[in-house]
Amino acid sequence: MINEFHFIRPLWLLALLAIPLIGWLLWRIKHSNFQWQGLIEDEMLAHLIVGKNEKHSLWPIVLLCSAWLLAVLALAGPSWQQLPQPQFANQKPLIILVDLSPSMLVEDIKPSRLVKMRFKLIDLIKARKQGLTALVVYGGDAHVLTPLSDDSKTLLSLVPTLSPNIMPIAGSRTEEGIELAISLIKDQGYKSADVVLFTDGVTVQAQQSVSALLENSNIRLSIIGVGTTAGAPIPLGSEGFAKDQNGNIVLAKLPRTLLQRLAETNHGRYHDLSLSNQDIADVLSLNENATDTYQELAALSSEMDQWEDAGQWLVLLILPFFLLSFRRGWLLQLFAVSMLIVPFIHPKPAQALGWEDLWQSSDQQGSQAFVKQDYSKAADKFSDDNWRGAAQYKAGDFAGAAKSYATLNNAGGYYNQGNALAKQGELAQAIKAYNKALLLEPELADAQTNKVLVENLLKKQKEQQSKDRRDGSELCPA
To answer: Residue 383: is it exposed, middle or buried by C-beta count within 10 angstroms (0-12/13-18/19+)?
Structure first.
């Protein structure tokens, strides 16, 4: 901690040079009888000055200079720890769709399909480092357990409660689960997303309905198959096992071929649930490293370190000085000295101050405007380049955002600059910005992901331009 101590605004420390001048001026004011010398005869002055023989104390001057010292240190911004600040990253909506039909209690994989699926769900949620995730379950009907959010802790806490017993209606209506997932995506304003379905089977009729629902949409369906092709009986508690109309015990088998076809039809991938995490890694790679045209560069708040300003705590140490300053003359003396000193320490052109400026800094006003989604006003108010860039990005001023982020000269700044340039269509420049970010922080996965995406878009753009030129050269002259 001590090794990381520094001042965020060290130039304010130059104001410490004013302390000797402040002390001298206060001393002269306190011994103000010199102002009358030369105007009144010395013999008469001796009888006019009150308290001439009193001993003058230096404590008021020492205390006021100490208050000045603390104020300057507070303005310089002492800091020794970091705090999270906003950074832009890709939105990656993912819907986890879980089959809670009675067949999930089958024990063809030990201890049961349900238990193994729960473990796999936990692995998937932990492996998902960034993006928005929702959890939808279905049996005879479908329900949203969590909407799209980045709250992985809530998701993890819900997984152990998943069971066919929580479903009000028994069954396996996959189409209702898909329909609810699509509604959830559209209601939250997303044009594209990925759905990962955990199931041990989908009927032929449900397969047709699912494909019809996903047709002409930007929603991709991947499937994790739970169970074995050999299958096992479906336990019904004290009633034994499920039986068909003829009284024969039903074996719940995993229809691997049908599920593979369903995933491929809807541009996703299929995997059997495995002991390793290769299945979820392969499925998540589609969502995290997508290069298809509907994957957008979008903004999502994540975390990026910035130094915390601890100067506010020094202000508390100044308060006792102000309590003592109510003795007659102290405040007036300090005000007089401040009016003399401040213009020399911090010369600035005259500025029109509004009512808000009296109570809030420009960054505080910008933060309020940002929360109210008035991003244009926020961009005008922010003095911090990182926040200004965030507001400009939100406001659609991608050129301004790129310039603001370029001034940061750190990995996060170049990464966000690349996002802003990509939004402008400056793909080649965006790739250069991502390269700068990766040079400073090689493990910045988001920069690598976006770089691959933009490189593919640039490649497609060049191929299209080349094709257009060939088509134009084949046209017959008029």
So the answer is: exposed
Give the Cα separation of 253 and 383 in Å (integer).
63
Q: Which tokens hold the place of 361?
A: 């800094």
Q: What is the largest CA-CA distance in the chain?
A: 132
| Rounded CA separation 365/380 (Å) | 10
Give the mean pLDDT of 280-288: 80
Closest CA to 309 of 4, 7, 1: 7
Both tokens of 193, joined, read 């997303």
Phi, psi for residue 347 in degrees, rounded to 5:
-65, 130
- Average the pLDDT over 312-334 and give the result: 64
- What's the pLDDT at 44? 65
pLDDT for 219-243, tens place per residue?
999 999 999 999 999 998 777 888 8
> In b/e form, how buried is each residue of 245-277, taking b as 16+ CB within 10 angstroms?
eeeeeeebbbbbebbbebbeebebbbbbbeeee
Closest CA to 251 of 225, 224, 227: 227
Q: From 250, 178, 188, select the one nearest 217 (Cα to Cα).
A: 178
pLDDT number for residue 462: 84
| Cis bond before residue 111 (omega within 30° of 0) | yes
State the alpha helices, DSSP H only, in 77-151.
Answer: 113-127
Rounded Cα distance between 475 and 97, Å, is 52
| CA dihedral sign, ordered 202, 204, 206, 207 | positive
Q: What is the CA radius of gyration of the chain?
A: 35
Tell me which residue of 120, 404, 122 sits closest to 273, measured CA to CA.
120
User: If you search the block for the tokens 């699509």, which residue do you land on?
Assistant: 182
Q: Which residues of 429-446 are buried (b: 16+ CB within 10 A; e: fewer)?
A: bbbebbebbbebeeebeb
Q: Is 177's pLDDT higher than 90? A: yes
How long a stretch of residues is the chain?
Answer: 478
Residue pair 169/139 in contact (Cβ under 8 Å)? The answer is yes
Question: Cα separation of 388 and 363, whole Å?
Answer: 9
Asked whether the beta carbons of 211 and 265 are under 8 A apart, the reply is yes
CB-CB contact of 214 with 207 (8 Å): no
Binning pLDDT at 50, 70 and 90, where does residue 217 land?
confident
pLDDT for 453: 86
Summarize pLDDT for 401-456 with one digit per residue, the tens.
999 998 888 888 899 999 999 888 899 999 999 899 888 888 887 888 888 888 88
Collapse the DSSP code of 158 into the 3-class scheme (helix H, G, I; strand E, B; otherwise coil) and give the result.
Answer: helix
What is the average per-residue pLDDT within 265-280? 91
Per DSSP, the three-state class of 293 is coil
Residue 243 DSSP symbol: B
